[in-house]
């Protein structure tokens, strides 16, 4: 039987108090509606239709062509939103999941169980419910004496008895598609909010003797609907816990999970240890046996095995096996760090390749450079890659030694095994095996320090 899905994503999300449309607010780095659509993709829905309205262009630009869209011009309620799918789906035979774009934690496993139960029972609709200690704000599931669901009452329409019910509507349902659209035709806006509630479909179905059942999710943490920033932070926390737990079960040591932030697209290998304050974002991939942190942020970067990264920031960087980075290093886009390279404290690398075993141990900037293997770049040495107009390349051959506080004025090439004396400002190529010194020759004046001090003192006294 055909399985369809309708995602409700047209609301403004007034309670977010934001210029960003609600369903585009990210949770663990991914817009909420992205989580929902990914989950539907995981359970292999045949056709997904997203209802857009507020911020339609932005939502469509984000989701692209992997789903179809229907426009809800005016936001008259969730029932009215689903009605906008009538043209595309109304005539179809099959099952339709309706899910909100602001419930990012609902998992594929939960949806699968709900569908399974629905298929077995032959009900007209199954509601995904949750039992909450504090159900405030959600629609309540009202069951009859026989335990069957009879209707859903919105928070604002609840009397005291209904408000005390702890079983809530998660906003996710599976319907017999034809019955859904048939019942929707009878929904009115006679309620406190003057909206066309999708939830009224349930009462309409049961009044027509259709069977509606509730499927209560096992883990109520999945139920959260994000209406404001308080719920957004809660969703972030719950999702973070889920992701961290999964990595731990997969063999990653996380010393302080409450203080470790891993976005959903990140992969981490076996026996890697994450120290407190580690933030792993985007498409970052980390290998086996690494130690990351404390206090490090890694964005869209690839780290191979046995790497150590301390108190550092990496973005669009690559770090090969056995390298160590930090403390306090900054690897910017195009940093390509070879095997067993050492990047030490206060070192910045941008658009530069460093060969195996090279060391940049302290206080350096290496930008727009090709550096060979086993090169030593001394403390404070920098590539001068920018003249205010153009960026130029520095090339350093294998086994070269660049002394402390050297300026390499690019474009410039240092040959293999060459030796650049500390304090030099290099403007011309240095050939393989040559030594370059480019600094003022030192001259000493014997006893002059004492003389000059005596003269200064005399000057000071004569002024007083
Ligand atoms: C809704 C449910 C409530 C449930 C809760 C679960 C209704 C009437 N209420 O309430 O029973 O407990 O979700 O989180 O359905 N939307 C549209 N068009 C509209 C209005 C809303 O597309 O005209 C979309 C919103 O973008 C949002 C979703 O529908 O993604 C839910 O709307 P929202 O206003 O957040 O409903 P709740 O008050 O949370
Ligand atoms: Ca909501």
Mean pLDDT: 97
Query: Would you identify the regions where 5 or more consecutive residues have pLDDT less than 50?
Result: none
CATH architecture identity of the largest domain: Alpha-Beta Complex
CATH superfamily of the largest domain: Spore Coat Polysaccharide Biosynthesis Protein SpsA, Chain A
**Count the strands?**
39
Estimated helix fraction: 10-25%
Q: What about the largest sheet?
A: 14 strands, parallel
CATH topology annotation of the largest domain: Spore Coat Polysaccharide Biosynthesis Protein SpsA, Chain A
Bound molecules: uridine-diphosphate-N-acetylglucosamine, calcium ion
Count of helical segments?
10
Kindly, what is the distance between the CA atoms of the first and last residues, rounded to a whole number of angstroms?
102 Å
Number of domains: 2
Structural class: alpha/beta
Strand content: 25-35%
């Amino acid at each position: 039987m055909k399985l369809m899905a309708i995602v409700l994503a047209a609301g403004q999300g007034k309670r977010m108090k934001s210029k960003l449309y609600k369903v585009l607010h990210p949770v663990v780095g991914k817009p909420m509606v992205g989580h929902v659509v990914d989950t539907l993709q995981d359970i292999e829905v045949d056709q997904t239709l997203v209802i857009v309205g507020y911020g339609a262009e932005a939502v469509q630009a984000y989701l692209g062509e992997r789903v179809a869209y229907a426009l809800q011009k005016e936001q008259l309620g969730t029932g009215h939103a689903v009605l906008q799918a009538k043209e595309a789906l109304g005539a179809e035979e099959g099952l339709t999941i309706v899910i909100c774009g602001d419930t990012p934690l609902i998992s594929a496993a939960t949806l699968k169980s709900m569908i399974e139960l629905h298929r077995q029972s032959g009900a007209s609709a199954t509601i995904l419910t949750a039992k909450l200690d504090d159900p405030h704000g959600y629609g309540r599931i009202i069951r009859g004496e026989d335990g069957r669901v009879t209707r859903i009452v919105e928070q604002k329409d609840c009397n005291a008895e209904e408000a005390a019910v702890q079983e809530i509507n998660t906003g996710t349902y599976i319907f017999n598609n034809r019955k859904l659209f048939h019942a929707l035709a009878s929904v009115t806006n006679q309620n406190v909010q003057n909206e066309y509630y999708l939830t009224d479909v349930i009462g309409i179905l049961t009044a027509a003797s259709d069977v509606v059942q509730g499927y209560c999710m096992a883990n109520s943490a999945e139920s959260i609907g994000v209406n404001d920033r308080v719920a957004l932070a809660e969703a972030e926390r719950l999702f973070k816990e889920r992701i961290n737990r999964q990595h731990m079960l997969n063999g990653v040591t996380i010393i302080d999970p409450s203080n470790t932030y891993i976005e959903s697209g990140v992969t981490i290998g076996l026996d890697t240890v994450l120290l407190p304050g580690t933030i792993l974002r985007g498409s970052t991939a980390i290998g086996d046996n690494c130690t990351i942190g404390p206090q490090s942020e890694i964005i869209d970067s690839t780290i191979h095995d046995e790497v150590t990264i301390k108190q550092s920031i990496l973005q669009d960087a690559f770090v090969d096996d056995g390298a160590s980075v930090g403390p306090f290093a900054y690897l910017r886009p195009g940093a390509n760090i070879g095997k067993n390279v050492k990047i030490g404290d206060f070192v910045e690398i941008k658009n530069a390749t460093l060969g195996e075993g090279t060391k940049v141990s302290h206080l350096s900037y290496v930008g727009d450079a090709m550096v060979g293997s086993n090169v030593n770049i001394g403390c404070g040495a920098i590539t001068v890659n920018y003249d205010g107009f153009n960026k130029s390349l520095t090339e350093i051959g294998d086994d070269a030694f660049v002394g402390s506080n050297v300026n390499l004025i690019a474009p410039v090439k240092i040959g293999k095994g060459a030796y650049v004396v500390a304090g030099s400002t290099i403007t011309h190529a240095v050939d393989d095996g040559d030594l370059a010194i480019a600094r003022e020759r030192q001259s000493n004046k014997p006893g002059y320090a004492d003389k000059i001090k005596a003269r200064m003192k005399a000057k000071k006294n004569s002024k007083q």
